[in-house]
Amino acid sequence: MTDSTSAQRLWAPRAWVQGQWRESVLLEIDAAGNWSAVQPATPRPDGVAALPGPVLPGLVNAHSHAFQRAFAGLAERRETGSDDFWSWRDRMYRVALGITPKQLEAVATQLYAELLRGGYTQVCEFHYLQHAIDGSRHADALAMSRALMRAATSAGIGLTMLPVLYERAGFTQPTLRDDQRRFATTADEVIVLRDGVRKAAAPRVNAGVAIHSLRAASPASITRLVERCSGDDGPIHIHVAEQTGEVDDCIAATGARPIEWLARHVALDSRWQLVHATHATTQEIEAVARSGAGVVICPSTEANLGDGLCDLPRWLGARTMLSIGSDSHVTRAWREELRWLEYGQRLRLRQRNVASAPELGLPASAQRLFNRCLAGGASAAGFSAWGLQPGARADLLVIDSDDSSLLGIPDDRLLDALVFSSPGRPWRDVMVAGRWVVRGHRHAAAQAIASNFTDAMAALASTL
Q1: Integer Cα distance of 304 and 128 in angstroms
Q2: pLDDT mean across residues, the chain
């Protein structure tokens, strides 16, 4: 990661402020690495550095399993009669059972550097890989968490750690399978892990909690964890309704659909983030919207695993907080996630510009999706302010207007082309908390990070 920028004031020819492009924007950074002022329509003052292109805020990647980066691209063959989420999961567990803290750090550092180059400046780590390979507890309960924190620090990305409650293999299976032995946690252990991360006080790291899923945690344990989070502002994430099989099992075990069960039995609020929520009824969508909870959609992973397509028009229409995540990391750029979020709906409905809302003054699909995910990502990561606004962390993306996918694009259609025109590498520079972490398309530590990653992948070869 490069040193802190020497300038506490920057000037952008164009920047995305309050949901739209604004011209001639002066940006001021305070000593804590936050924006102290964002002033559009301001001529560049003498001595203030001019950024070499238009500027966007970075997005939050609201759902990550960093260790799965080691598995990306390696499950794309079918050797048996059928292949689905559950068979993919069994193969993924082999990686989970073999990776050491050192290897996890190498894999995660590579991932986090890639996420920065993909336009993310914060990542929410849904972290359930806790214990030693044989399932025993590490002498330091935070051993795997510290590997991820070191990786985030080395890469220069912000990190929201979400230790996961994970105690059983299914609704009718009261214990974990042997190949899930590294995941075992109780509600009280999750709180210890969360508090340990906070006490470590790593730079740009905060923490909340997560529940793996309704199938993986008993109602009593969920209640206990929620009680332990009373009065705490940290986010609470949960996988929910990703697979139709999960929905069917939940109905059989509880008499209710997964989101329906949550809405009935948990006091959902703005801390809660429902990850995937792919198979939701109109009534469930309305209940989530009333609660103020958010939804994290992971389009590339949901496509890769054959999960299905969410009802995006209803989620948007209900004004639910939305964010995106790269989950299993088959894709590591938000442009592609937003593209496929829209394209999936086009295929499902055989329409174009499904996310646009000209009746609301939002004719551009990219603008509506980007703004919703900008705000929703802040909530998912536990931030009250995000983007180019005073009080938010000083993160930004400098667009390379000379990128082939952007050549000749009118200024007012730049975001449209960023989302719906590819390929390309549009981010010339990336800043996190007032520090340049990517300059001229390159992460300063890219070569060393890649070397460590390659070594880790070679060591993991027998598990892949």
Answers
A1: 21
A2: 96
Averaged over 134-139, what is the pLDDT? 97
- pLDDT of 384 reads 96
Tell me whether residue 326 is in a domain. Answer: yes
Residue 124 lies in a domain: yes
458, part of any domain: no
On whether both 33 and 99 belong to a single domain, the answer is: no
> Quick check: 220 pLDDT over 90?
yes
Phi, psi (degrees; rounded to nearest 5) at 37 = -160, 140
| CA distances for 9 relative to 32, 35, 47, 127, angstroms | 14, 10, 9, 37
User: Distance between CA 434 and CA 459 in Å, rounded?
Assistant: 36
- Structural domain range at position 20: 9-57+392-447
Is 70 exceeded by the pLDDT of residue 4? no
Q: What average pLDDT does range 25-51 have in this prediction? A: 97
Domain identity same for 53 and 64: no
Q: Quick one: what percent of the chain has pLDDT higher than 70?
A: 98
- Other CB atoms within 10 A of residue 182 CB: 22
Burial of 426 (0-12, 13-18, 19+ CB in 10 A): buried
How many CB atoms are closer than 10 A to CB 48? Answer: 16
165 beta partners:
211
The confidence score (pLDDT) of residue 82 equals 87
**314 in Cβ contact with 283 (< 8 Å):** no
What percent of the chain has pLDDT above 90? 94
Give the residue numbers marked as catalytic: 276, 327
Scan for tokens 């990661």, then name that residue.
1
Return all residues near 453 (Cβ < 8 A) that are at least 6 apart: 106, 107, 109, 110
Q: What is the pLDDT of residue 6?
A: 45
Average confidence (pLDDT) over 123-149? 98
Indicate whether 86 pLDDT > 90. no
Question: Do 141 and 52 share a structural domain?
Answer: no
Which alpha helices (DSSP H) does 229-281 contain, by range? 244-254, 258-265
How far lies 436's CA from each of 19, 205, 411, 431, 443, in Å? Answer: 24, 17, 25, 4, 9
Residues 207 and 305 reside in one and the same domain: yes
pTM for this one?
A: 0.97
C-alpha distances out from residue 132 to 119, 304, 412, Å: 33, 29, 52
| Residue among 154, 163, 137 at smallest CA distance from 202 | 154
The reply to whether 77 and 184 lie within a common domain is: yes
Residue 256 sits in a domain whose CATH number is 3.20.20.140
> Is 459 part of a structural domain of the chain?
no
